[in-house]
Amino acid sequence: MIKRFVKWCVEFWNIRQSRKSGLFLVVVTLSVVTTVMLSFPLNAQTTPQRLPTSELRGVWLTNIDSDVLFERDRLKGSLQRLDELNFNTVYPAVWNWGYTLYPSKVAAKVIGRAIDPTPGLQGRDMLKEIVDVGHQKGLTVIPWFEFGFMAPADSLLAKNRPQWLTSRSDGTRIVKEGTHNRVWLNPFRPEVQQFIQDLIVEIVRNYDIDGIQFDDHFGLPSELGYDAYTVALYNKEHRGQAPSKNSKDPEWVRWRANKITDFMKRVFTTIKATKKDCLVSVAPNPQRFSYEYFLADWQKWERMGIVEDLVLQIYRDDLNVFVSELEYPEVKAAKSHIPVSIGILAGLKNRSIPMQQIQTQVQKVRDRNFAGVSFFFYETLWNMSKEKPLVRQTSFQKIFPTPTTYPNLLAGWKP
Hints:
By secondary structure, the protein is of the alpha/beta class. Helices cover about 45% and strands about 15% of the residues. The strands form 4 sheets. It has an 8-stranded parallel beta sheet. A 3-stranded antiparallel beta sheet has the order 6-8-7, with no helix packed on it. A hairpin with a 2-residue loop joins strand 13 and strand 14.
């Protein structure tokens, strides 16, 4: 700005062809400009807020309302675009709809199919493609166990292993998720635990992944758990007493949540024994919801040291509610131990989220020094929105103007 003023003054001086008056004008002008500049607040003279040197910039890739995983070139192009826009982490779903999305010997043995029957997945190893291309682009790849213990009611798994399913106190099993009928594998049965653990170990052992992620579906809807096996186990540990008919009874909730925590600890130990540098990530809802509705006590998991990366799903339109969720004591406590990032909703199939809301929420997260953000889900970043794809991509480029590294606890991340 000063240079432009000087240039203008010199040109004016040349035009007037008056050496003395021109020099005087330059001096006076510089004096005025300097005085005005110094009168501005300090932050008006500096560049915008410096971006973190490490920041999670993630996105979930799923096969629900999305075909990003179903074609090799499309998947490669999508990873390329994410890299160009300075994202650094992808969470591809690997266990959905009662099937694995990668060729699985464990699934073939238990379910009867080695891979999800969707045509676009046949003859491919989608997960290997993501690991290979993602790592070429410098992306962190953390497979996501999206369905956890949940399965479609009409899935091969549910039909072939009915004894593995759990129920409500009235014996019913179906849990509605939108328009879909779901059932839940009993997370307290040793055979179910072994099956899920075997799937996890298979991925950790066979793929060059950076971590593996679970969410609330690694728990159980609190209305369930009244199957004969679980009731008998509860009776045995409570001197013959039956579990409360009230599914929200504190002791009944606590007992089931603790059993799930025990399994989570076992899974963590097994993962680390298989691949020491494989991060264990959890992407739950806020603690109160996760614990009360899904028996997933992530606050306890974090305190026990069996979570190394927390991505808290806060899918809220109301900004005040969104911010209040960031301020909970258990969230602040976790932030002091491990990287805690925030999951932000980029949209759903029939629900477009405006870019302005996304930008504001990202800023609120940054203002509070979280480790980063991840978006649910890939298609709604720009393909499935009321706003034009180019407008959305340009906005993300402004949010992430320069590359940065993934905040890795094992690589020396500090709060």
